[in-house]
């Protein structure tokens, strides 16, 4: 049981992250998976059955009963509470095992810091192990290639610590899912989320600025490929335009050139910018750009043309020519 690993939330990000864990962990140990959509667990168990043993759990509680190391990635803080604190079927319902204190939880969702701190402190207060917030960055492609940035809400273990116990298990998970050059130890519980929220405040608002600028330029008659070349070689150059250019057919690997598929769902824009606005307000910084952006994102998240498409579909919402 000590070597077994649990993974909860096999969505767009979790599925490939769990794949990397299963293919890199010991073939002798079991990977316990759980998602409220059982069919996703069945597909996962079938697809990776040759990599080592996989068991499908019926609840987060069952995962905690069978694994000492557990990674989770679900949509919102509400879902994180369900997974960890759900009265009958959450992780805490598994309390009472001899190894409770040894458990390690790596919580990778993008949620608010207060929820992470509350859940983490409750688990530790109950003697149920160590909870580390570890939001990730790089999107679905980096989740597949195991090159995510890992924003760890903990301080860096010393070289001695990193080789044993909970710290060793933490290191292993980070290495299996993330790029070793992109493991960022941000401080205390909640600090990984603070960093993630600030980063996503930027990436989401820049995505909107790109869509507005490109839609304007194309409607003014510019060839979108030329406009992109100008931006890519001028002061407007940015990662989002280079990799998530919103105009179809300009950057071949961008979601827009592939039917706006995969990537970061349009409905998540309001959540992430909302987290940034809340965080800024909590420290008396006025989030004026975020407030303007969320007014657009709230509509994008309800628009049939945008739901379940990559967030760069906001270009289509604005009426950008395709
Ligand atoms: P998703 O909706 O594709 O997947 C979430 C999964 O969690 C689903 O399979 C769902 O069935 C499952 N789930 C929900 N509640 C559950 C519960 N109580 N117990 C077990 N499973 C449950 O979402 P995603 O795109 O994978 O994003 C997950 C998190 O990662 C979000 O917080 C998101 O902001 C963050 N994130 C996403 C990206 C991205 O590019 N998609 C990048 C970085 C971070």
UniProtKB/TrEMBL annotation:
Keywords for the protein's UniProt record, in alphabetical order: Branched-chain amino acid catabolism, NAD, Oxidoreductase
Enzyme superclass (EC): oxidoreductase
Catalysed reactions listed for this entry: 3-hydroxy-2-methylpropanoate + NAD(+) = 2-methyl-3-oxopropanoate + NADH + H(+)
Annotated PROSITE patterns: 3_HYDROXYISOBUT_DH
UniProt superkingdom: Eukaryota
Domain 3-hydroxyisobutyrate dehydrogenase-like NAD-binding: 190-316
Residues at the catalytic site: 196
Domain 6-phosphogluconate dehydrogenase NADP-binding: 4-157
One GO molecular-function entry: NADP binding
Known EC number: 1.1.1.31
Pathway assigned in UniProt: Amino-acid degradation; L-valine degradation
Family assignment from sequence similarity: Belongs to the HIBADH-related family. 3-hydroxyisobutyrate dehydrogenase subfamily.
Protein's name in the database: 3-hydroxyisobutyrate dehydrogenase
């Amino acid at each position: 049981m000590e070597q077994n690993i649990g993974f909860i939330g096999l969505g767009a990000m979790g599925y490939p992250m769990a794949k990397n864990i299963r293919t890199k962990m010991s073939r002798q140990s079991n990977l316990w998976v759980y998602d409220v959509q059982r069919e996703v667990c069945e597909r996962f168990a079938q697809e990776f059955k040759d990599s080592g043993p996989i068991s499908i759990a019926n609840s987060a509680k069952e995962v905690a009963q069978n694994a000492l190391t557990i990674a989770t990635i679900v949509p919102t803080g509400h879902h994180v509470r369900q997974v960890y604190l759900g009265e009958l079927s959450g992780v805490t319902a598994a309390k009472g095992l001899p190894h409770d204190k040894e458990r390690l939880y790596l919580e990778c969702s993008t949620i608010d810091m207060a929820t992470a701190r509350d859940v983490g402190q409750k688990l530790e207060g109950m003697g149920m192990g160590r909870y580390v917030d570890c939001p990730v960055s790089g999107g679905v492609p980096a989740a597949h290639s195991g090159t995510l940035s890992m924003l760890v809400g903990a301080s860096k273990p010393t070289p001695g610590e990193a080789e044993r116990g909970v710290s060793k298990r933490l290191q292993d998970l980070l290495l299996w899912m993330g790029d070793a050059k992109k493991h960022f130890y941000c401080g205390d519980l909640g600090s990984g989320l603070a960093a993630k929220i600030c980063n996503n405040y930027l990436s989401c608002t820049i995505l909107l600025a790109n869509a507005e600028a490109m839609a304007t330029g194309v409607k003014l008659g510019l060839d979108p490929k030329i406009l992109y070349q100008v931006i890519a070689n001028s002061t407007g150059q940015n990662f989002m335009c280079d990799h998530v250019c919103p105009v179809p057919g300009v950057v071949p690997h961008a979601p827009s050139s592939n039917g706006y598929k995969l990537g970061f769902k349009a409905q998540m824009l309001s959540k992430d910018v909302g987290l940034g606005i809340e965080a800024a307000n909590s420290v008396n910084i006025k989030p004026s750009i975020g407030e303007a952006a969320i007014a657009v994102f709230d509509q994008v998240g309800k628009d049939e043309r945008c739901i379940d498409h990559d967030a760069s579909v906001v270009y289509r919402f604005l009426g950008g020519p395709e």
